[in-house]
């Protein structure tokens, strides 16, 4: 159900317009973040699921969707890790700017 809500015709949706399901919004936003489509900090996404007992499961779903539809789930980690000085050397084939 979550994957169907955040994808359309085999692609991750470019926008998510429904606020009715906080979990679907969170997964969509985190998949875009981790996949490199939108690497600005997803603060609102974290707020809408604050206190949700299934947050770890939602993170796993978001990572899987990012890998499946965007090819990676570490683009934001490389961008922010590099910007904050944690990853001085970006692995070959990875973009420091997503």
SSE blueprint and pairings:
Blueprint (H helix, E strand, L loop, with lengths): L1 H5 E2 L2 E2 L9 H14 L7 H6 L6 H16 L4 H9 L15
Antiparallel strand pairs: 1-2
Helix pairs in contact: 2-4
- Whole-number mean pLDDT: 85
Question: What structural category arises from helix and sheet content?
Answer: mainly alpha
Biggest sheet overview: 2 strands, antiparallel
Q: How do the helices and strands follow one another from N- to C-terminus?
A: HEEHHHH
Total strands: the figure is 2
Query: Please, how many domains?
Result: 1
What's the overall geometry?
globular
Rg over C-alpha atoms, rounded to the nearest angstrom? 14 Å
Kindly, what is the distance between the CA atoms of the first and last residues, rounded to a whole number of angstroms?
28 Å
Description:
The chain starts with a helix and ends in a 15-residue tail after the last helix. It is 51% helix and 4% strand. Helix 2 (22-35) packs across helix 4. The protein has helices at 2-6, 22-35, 43-48, 55-70, 75-83; strands at 7-8, 11-12. It is built from five helices and two strands, in the order H-E-E-H-H-H-H. The chain has one domain (2-83). By secondary structure, it is mainly alpha-helical. It is globular.
What distinguishing features does this structure have?
98 residues; single chain; two-stranded antiparallel sheet; mainly alpha; globular
Brief description of this entry?
By secondary structure, the protein is mainly alpha-helical. 51% of the residues lie in helices and 4% in strands. It has one domain.
């Amino acid at each position: 159900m979550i994957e169907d809500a955040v994808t359309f015709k085999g692609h991750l949706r470019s926008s998510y317009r429904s606020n009715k399901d906080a979990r679907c919004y969170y997964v969509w936003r985190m998949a875009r973040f981790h996949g490199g489509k939108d690497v600005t900090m997803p603060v609102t996404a974290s707020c809408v699921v604050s206190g949700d007992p299934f947050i770890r499961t939602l993170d796993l779903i978001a990572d899987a969707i990012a890998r499946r539809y965007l090819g990676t789930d570490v683009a934001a980690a490389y961008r922010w890790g590099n910007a904050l000085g944690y990853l001085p050397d970006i692995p070959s084939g990875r973009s420091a700017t997503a």
